[in-house]
């Protein structure tokens, strides 16, 4: 029995891989059939079509998905864009209507005296009462059960506060109390009948448009559900073959070849799309208003489905070289990034504590991280220097030493090493494409099968006992 047959029958030193009484040998024809099954499992969709005539439904479904999901995202994005634009424009209009002497160029709007506060509150109340006589657009009072909602003014105050300027002390109770005053409108307002006619004329096409959108979302959900089932089935079949091959010990990297990471990516994308589409239907029906959650789900799903389609580019080596380089360089990049993140965090903590009281970009830990990351790209360096120019000598000296060590370390050394890691991996991949990559034990075992896809030997009876004998070698098969 050859070493390759140990892959199926027993472990090293001829010890049986099964705890029960197993056969000492496996029929060579069964070994060849299993090798052919493994080769078929790792074939491309086109090779599988030539081998068994099985059409690449999964590939065609993924191409269809990328079209309809992208269309769904663009439609939702345009709707979301109009909603955000409408909201921002109305907020600006309300600021001009209710805030006294408001101007767009003023980012901060503050009141500093009691007289100003009282004056502005009265101004807001008067403008609110005259709202329908002032506005050009269709602004009106909100109604709940045919009752106008009152204007409410809320004020948050500490429960107790006592300030003593004489000895520069203060006593503040940290509990916050909220006081609310409501102003109810007594005058009854009536709308014209013409407004009802206009609303009714627009209502019918809007309802039809809503039904078409919901129907399209249901089509997206069904296609993603079908893709989810097919990809889950492929992953499950790979796990079954993995258990068969593990009758003889196989290293971890070869085990992972049976589990296609691209299918896992597509499964995640389909799950996010199904949940996001269901949430989108609820938003369209006015039952929910979770635009941000829906945007995150649909945006992430679309990103993953576009990346997942790149799986089919692996059959064209020149187009797939980017993914091969990233896959090969990822372990080294992760190990290198761990050390780089440790150094980056040390600079973040130091800058936050020392420069935080003296520079607005270092006021919080999050702002420090953003500022330092901008420095790596060449931004924020000059502004950081100029804003600390007038500080005391000790802080000024420390800021120079801090920045002069951080920028060269990350810009010239760490980033250059990142590029060197990826470049070295890229050259290795190009060398493998020209001269051939070393085969793993699993790949060498499969390579012993010399049958071309068109040989017809891959068309085997799925219900034959060969696969069962390999899955359960303890059964006495002939």
UniProtKB/TrEMBL annotation:
Catalytically driven reaction(s): Ca(2+)(in) = Ca(2+)(out)
Signal peptide: none
One Gene Ontology term, aspect cellular component: endosome membrane
Residues passing through the membrane, by range: 210-231, 261-281, 293-313, 333-355, 401-422
Locations listed in the record: Cell membrane; Endosome membrane
Region feature (Disordered): 1-28
Keyword Transcription regulation: no
Domain of life: Eukaryota
Occurrences of domain Polycystin cation channel PKD1/PKD2 (ranges): 292-429
GO-annotated molecular function: NAADP-sensitive calcium-release channel activity
InterPro entries on file: MCLN_ECD, Mucolipin, PKD1_2_channel
Domain called Mucolipin extracytosolic: residue spans: 83-184
Membrane topology: Multi-pass membrane protein
Ion transport as UniProt keyword: yes
Keywords of the record: Cell membrane, Disulfide bond, Endosome, Ion channel, Ion transport, Membrane, Transmembrane, Transmembrane helix, Transport
Name of protein: Mucolipin-3-like
Organism the protein comes from: Sinocyclocheilus rhinocerous
Lineage of origin: Eukaryota, Metazoa, Chordata, Craniata, Vertebrata
Gene: mcoln3a
